Amino acid sequence: MRWRGGISSLTTVWLLGITCLELTAAVELLERQSTSSGPFSGEFCDYTSFQASVVGSRLLMFGGNLTVNKGTNSKEKRQLEPGFQFFSMLLNQTISATSNVSSYLTREPDPSAQKKIASMRDGGSYSYNGDIFFYGGEQLFNAGDDGTIYKCTPTSENIVWNQASISGGGVNRAITKGASVDASTENKGFYFGGQNTIPKGADSSQADLVLNDTFVNNLVVVTFSGDKQEFTNISAPVDKVNPLAQSNLLFVPAGKEGILVNLGGIDSTGSGAWDTLQVFDIGSSTWFNQQTRGNLTSGRSRNPGSGTCSVIVSNGDTHYIYVYGGSNRAPGQSQLAILTIPTFQWATVENSNFPSKVNAQCQISGQRQMLILGGRSSNSRNDCGQNNFLEILDLSSLTIVSNFPDNSPFTVPAILVTLASNGTGPADGWTDPDLEKLYEVQYQTLAQRNKGSKSDKGAIIGGVVGGVAGVILIGIVAVYFIMKNHRKKSAQVVKEVVAEVNRNSAATQPFLGQPSPGFPSPGLPSPGYPSGYGQPQEHYKDEYAEAPANQIPAELPPQTPSSRPMELPT
């Protein structure tokens, strides 16, 4: 009883300690939320052109344009926040989107004050080994040269900023409004299209100059390995790929090394890639086109327009791309379009409760929740207090929800079940037959391919070594039985020789005393080998070449004929 009581006391103390830690963390969170109206210097209006990355359990948001309402005075309303925007939000906490979501945000220290980190808008971000790399974008202050980008390393205590160099031919950082995607399973990042900029170097008085009349038709690839990053530039063929700005680039786990799907955006005519998509095969570095079907029209707009954000969710070999918002969608119109792959069919979701968003950022959390971050209303720019910083879309129920997180598994919405079951390919056929071949290959991640390659090499080496060892073993066994058979035959021949000697010896001379069996007494002279001895010996030599040619010992007495052996083997 005393032992049980001791354990019970220790357990109670341990539980009380855990409870205290949890209460302390909760109090700190409540204190932070209650002592401040949030990370903004005024009432939140909108936040656009920023980059978002998830590292561990933290959502990090960098750069962009933040506008707040600082009062009723028209000069104060919708003021652009100066400097570098940097916010974080913990994804392992319970969030209710019905409250002021900005209270869950933390405004991180401005790194540009001490480390001259660039303020940037647009551009792309890529996460690798706990680091976040930034590429492209329009830089506002303390801009670096063409060959310098920035990276940050979030730790449990702070965030460390450093510069990184662009290595590789034909690549510089002076490009903005492109489409970026982080292909973490391939240790790669991609940045397509956009517009050229003229960097201002260290001049912090003005931003980079964007050349609005230019549209770039290049795909920049960054490959991460160890502590290095290598940039390459792949020019897209003009007959396959239309130069776009502000499009959506998505990584689809299909084909040998994955594919990229580029959609939306705008070009020099104001159109984007909606009816015909641009598809890039990573393994072969080849561009394809694929025609889609389905109605994207909502209200007076044929398609969502530019300024959309998107995520992808997979269900086996079928993939669903959720595209939200857009410059062509007004409140009351469809804000959500979904593309099913590989049938390549569009579906729109009509829901008047969906808030209109332009230039927001979308991130997927768990298996079924899409976080719609920032953005502005496509209907009015005077909506401070009505545009929430965060909206949460349930990818299965297709509704805006308020509770986060939801760890339930993804289920295919009813509206998509029919589209996904229409076949294993596009209803109108493949625009490019070679694209169909990509879907015949089961995708494996880079780690899985490397593991399989090592296993294959090991199997090959093991097979070769095993084969050689087997041949050697078989040879040894064969030699053993051959030698054993030879020894039996040799013993038989020797016995026949001995018998012949005995017969000849008995016929020519008597035994004296106790001579060796089959041989005359060594003390008596002998005229030579007994008759017939040499013939069996010659037969022995011809049939078994490995036997000694002559077994005559050297210690025979001089009077003994040199051909007489002292002893025969038994």
Description:
InterPro entries: Gal_Oxase/kelch_b-propeller, Kelch-typ_b-propeller. There is one protein chain. The protein has a domain at about 455-545. It has six helices and 34 strands. Strands 2-3-6-8 form a four-stranded antiparallel β-sheet, with no helix packed on it. Strands 10-11-13-14 form a four-stranded antiparallel β-sheet, with no helix packed on it. The protein has a four-stranded antiparallel β-sheet with strand order 16-17-20-21, with no helix packed on it. Strand 10 (about 125-130) and strand 11 form a beta hairpin. It has about 575 residues and is of the alpha+beta class.
Draw up the topology in text.
Elements: H1 2-34, E1 43-48, E2 51-55, E3 58-62, E4 65-69, E5 79-80, E6 86-90, E7 95-96, E8 106-107, H2 112-115, E9 120-121, E10 124-128, E11 131-135, E12 138-139, E13 148-154, E14 159-165, E15 175-176, E16 179-183, E17 188-192, E18 195-198, E19 209-210, E20 218-225, E21 228-235, E22 245-252, E23 259-266, E24 273-281, E25 286-291, E26 309-315, E27 318-324, E28 336-341, E29 345-349, E30 361-365, E31 369-373, E32 390-394, E33 399-401, E34 403-404, H3 414-420, H4 433-438, H5 446-508, H6 534-543
Antiparallel strand pairs: 1-4, 2-3, 3-6, 4-5, 6-8, 7-34, 9-12, 10-11, 11-13, 13-14, 15-18, 16-17, 17-20, 18-19, 20-21, 22-23, 23-24, 24-25, 26-27, 27-28, 28-29, 30-31, 31-32, 32-33
Summarize the structure.
With 570 residues, the chain is of the alpha+beta class.
